[in-house]
Automatic annotation (TrEMBL):
It comes from Streptomyces reniochalinae. One of its GO terms (molecular function) is hydrolase activity. Keywords: Hydrolase. This is MBL fold metallo-hydrolase. Gene3D superfamilies: Ribonuclease Z/Hydroxyacylglutathione hydrolase-like.
Length: 218
């Protein structure tokens, strides 16, 4: 079955099979959070993005090989409800944006800055610090050498707009500026976007609406 990025809580994972990396997406918890398991094909090493909820589902997805690391995209509680249990079970190193780490109750082993490189086996991911939804949200970019980039955005970019800035106009402008400059300004239209909730999209599908988002203010 071709990958669609459409998943439901309680349903099976959807797996995006790339030449060097396998990306498994599941939906968990009452807020329909997405969690992503990345597996390096060459080494079998695994990395989890957002241990959001339902540790049992996540541990079943992880399987017997465990995970080397888990990245929390930002400090909001719906993105780390299963983090402690997953870390206790796997011994994984924890990563989060430096300016959000203090808001995550599980200690962050590696605070992440803009431009930092994270590895899963032989695969490299680049972190982008995006301010506005939270002070320290991070997105992760996998620039596939055999195809187009893949972008994990947490709650900073969704189909149809940027993340919630809770009525704060300054934070909205900052978030849209960061998303426009660090993501749309550096990555091609073919870039596949994996958000923290809901369906996937591409930068090309969203790019024509950037002006509309700025004018509407959310």
């Amino acid at each position: 079955m071709p990958y669609t990025g459409t998943v439901q809580v309680g349903g099976p994972a959807d797996v995006h099979e790339l030449r060097d990396l396998m990306i498994s997406k599941v939906a968990v918890g009452p807020m329909d959070n997405n969690a992503y398991l990345l597996r390096c094909r060459a080494t079998g090493q695994q990395l989890l993005i957002d241990a959001a909820n339902d540790a049992g589902t996540l541990m079943e997805l992880i399987g017997g090989d465990g995970i080397a690391s888990v990245v929390t995209t930002h400090r909001h509680g719906d993105h780390w409800q299963a983090l402690a249990e997953v870390v206790d079970a796997t011994g994984a190193r924890t990563y989060a944006g430096r300016y959000d780490a203090e808001g995550i109750p599980v200690p962050t082993d590696v605070p992440v800055e803009d431009g930092d490189t994270l590895r899963v086996g032989e695969v490299e991911l680049t972190a982008r610090h995006l301010v506005g939804h939270t002070p320290g949200s991070i997105a992760l970019v996998y620039d596939d050498p055999h195809g187009h980039p893949h972008l994990f955005t947490g709650d900073c970019l969704f189909p149809g707009g940027v993340g919630n800035t809770f009525g704060d106009a300054a934070n909205f402008v900052r978030l849209l500026d960061d998303v426009e400059h660090k993501l749309f300004g550096q990555l091609p239209d073919e870039t596949w976007v994996y958000p923290g909730h809901g369906s996937d999209t591409t930068l090309g599908a969203e790019r024509p609406r950037l002006r509309e988002w700025r004018e509407r203010g959310w």
